[in-house]
Design goal:
Radius of gyration: 14 Å
Mean pLDDT: 92
Strand order of the largest sheet: 1-5-4-3-2-6
Shape: globular
CATH topology: Nuclear Transport Factor 2, Chain: A
CATH architecture: Roll
CATH class: Alpha Beta
Order of helices and strands: HHEHEEEEHE
Structural class: alpha+beta
Low-confidence stretches: none
Helix content: 25-40%
Number of domains: 1
Strand content: 25-35%
């Protein structure tokens, strides 16, 4: 099955909804890049992204044990430009905190970026892959 933006977005959303990044990490190119307004500098390898995501999800999982209303939720959406993306919400709030977009090349995720929702215009679907 060819890797598409939709497959990448679904894998990312599943990873966050399960707090288990492993299946998503398998889709990354060895030299994949990740950038976010919440990360000091762009991450430029699968290994660096894996360390970051595993640590981030562990922190969220540990925090959620005592604060179940603070779970991260990832929803499949379409951006205003038609690309498949993921809308991130937190806790019981329905407000989108960030939108994640993907670049696929050579049947691998070459890059993904966490962006401000105001820039991407996500169209909500109500689909939260688990």
């Amino acid at each position: 099955m060819p890797l598409t933006e939709l497959v990448a977005a679904t894998a990312f959303a599943r990873a966050w909804n399960r707090l288990d990044p492993e299946a998503f990490l398998e889709l990354l190119a060895p030299d994949a890049h990740y950038a976010s307004r919440w990360v000091f500098e762009e991450l430029g390898s699968r290994a660096a992204i894996a360390r970051y995501l595993r640590g981030k999800m562990k922190t969220v999982r540990n925090f959620r044990i005592n604060n179940p209303g603070h779970r991260a939720r990832a929803e499949l959406t379409t951006c205003g430009d038609g690309r498949h993306c993921v809308a991130m919400t937190q806790g019981d709030h329905d407000e989108v905190k960030a939108v994640v977009v993907f670049t696929v090349s050579g049947n691998r995720i070459a890059r993904y970026d966490m962006c401000m929702p105001e820039l991407m215009g996500p169209l909500r679907s109500g689909v939260f892959p688990i």
